[in-house]
């Protein structure tokens, strides 16, 4: 029995489904959740919810939710802890309770569909393909195989998700991404794709990227920078995507203080560096970090510094020193030198 058939059979036993996105969901997670909801509806589930934690702050993500009118609800632990036996819990674009989500770690999960590197995934149904460039590629396969109605909004969402997670097929794209995109293209809305591909950029995001440029430090082909404190969490991946294009740079890592946590974003087209492993090894004892060999992220709770507000500049200096030292040690760099 194929993955799609196994999933459909499991959905047929449920009365409701809660589809949990990872923290601060991106287009790949949102489109995958939307597609799974459509498949669940076709299987006869009337009660369907898409839940998330964190913020939807990236300008593309906000436009994605607004233009496609995706019904999102804040995640609450009670929703999954007190559910009935025929109430299904699904993860898309992530896989482990408590890792990049606020789901209690002892929660039983029914469905996991993911493409990020992970170990010890435990669920009744698991489709984990870390060789793929997007979770939306898997959901597109399901939609095709199960002959689910592919309306314009769903096709547009899945196509944008694949393009976004692969940087328009320049990062981690496989033949499966190209095949999925080819199928979706004829059903998608070109004008909506244009709007979603070119959203406006906030002043805060631009300021954070500017700060990352000013604070960059390089050692050979490695660049490390920070944005200081910012309210624009999604400025970090945008900054690192920009800085990794700097001539001579093969690995770029940008971190910053957002609310009460340190966020980290990394990129590395260098086949000698696995940035997912770098962030995991450097910060697993104080937070979380991981991802693919070329794309990764991490989050570290601010901990003892969370209530220290009398001298924000000093806190930022301490954070910069500690995070940079850990990265330098894990990357086996001699020292970082400012450009």
Automatic annotation (TrEMBL):
InterPro entries on file: DDH_dom (IPR001667), DHH_sf (IPR038763), DHHA1_dom (IPR003156), Oligoribo/pAp-PDE_c-di-AMP_PDE (IPR051319)
Record GO terms (molecular function): nucleic acid binding
Pfam families per UniProt: DHH (PF01368), DHHA1 (PF02272)
Segments forming domain DDH: 17-162
Highest rank taxon of the organism: Archaea
Ranges where the DHHA1 domain occurs: 220-322
SUPFAM superfamilies referenced in this protein's UniProt entry, alphabetically: DHH phosphoesterases
Protein name as annotated: Phosphoesterase RecJ domain-containing protein
Organism: Halanaeroarchaeum sulfurireducens
């Amino acid at each position: 029995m194929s993955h799609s058939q196994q999933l459909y059979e499991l959905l047929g036993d449920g009365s409701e489904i809660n589809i949990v996105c990872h923290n601060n969901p991106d287009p790949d997670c949102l489109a995958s959740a939307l597609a799974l909801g459509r498949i669940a509806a076709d299987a006869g589930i009337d009660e369907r919810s898409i839940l998330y934690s964190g913020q939807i702050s990236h300008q593309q993500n906000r436009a994605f939710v607004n233009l496609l009118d995706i019904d999102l609800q804040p995640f609450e632990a009670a929703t999954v802890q007190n559910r009935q036996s025929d109430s299904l819990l699904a993860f898309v674009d992530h896989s482990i309770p408590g890792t990049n989500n606020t789901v209690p770690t002892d929660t039983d999960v029914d469905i996991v569909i993911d493409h990020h590197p992970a170990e010890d995934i435990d669920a009744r149904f698991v489709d984990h393909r870390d060789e793929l460039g997007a979770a939306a590629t898997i959901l597109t396969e399901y939609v095709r195989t199960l002959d689910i109605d592919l309306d314009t909004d769903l096709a547009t969402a899945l196509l944008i998700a694949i393009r976004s997670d692969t940087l328009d097929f320049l990062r981690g794209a496989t033949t499966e991404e190209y095949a999925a995109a080819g199928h979706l293209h004829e059903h998608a809305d070109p004008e909506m794709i244009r709007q979603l591909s070119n959203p406006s950029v906030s002043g805060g995001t631009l300021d954070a990227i500017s700060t990352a440029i000013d604070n960059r430090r390089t050692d050979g082909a490695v660049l490390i920078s920070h944005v200081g404190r910012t309210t624009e969490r999604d400025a970090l991946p945008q900054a690192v995507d920009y800085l990794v294009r700097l001539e001579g740079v093969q690995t770029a890592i940008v971190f910053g203080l957002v609310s009460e946590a340190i966020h980290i974003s990394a990129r590395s087209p260098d086949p000698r560096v696995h940035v997912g492993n770098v962030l995991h090894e450097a910060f697993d004892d104080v937070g979380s970090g991981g991802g693919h060999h070329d794309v990764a992220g991490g989050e570290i709770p601010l901990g003892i510094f969370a209530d220290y507000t009398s001298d924000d500049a000093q806190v930022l200096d301490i954070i910069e020193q500690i995070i940079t030292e850990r990265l330098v040690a894990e990357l086996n760099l001699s020292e970082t030198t400012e450009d």
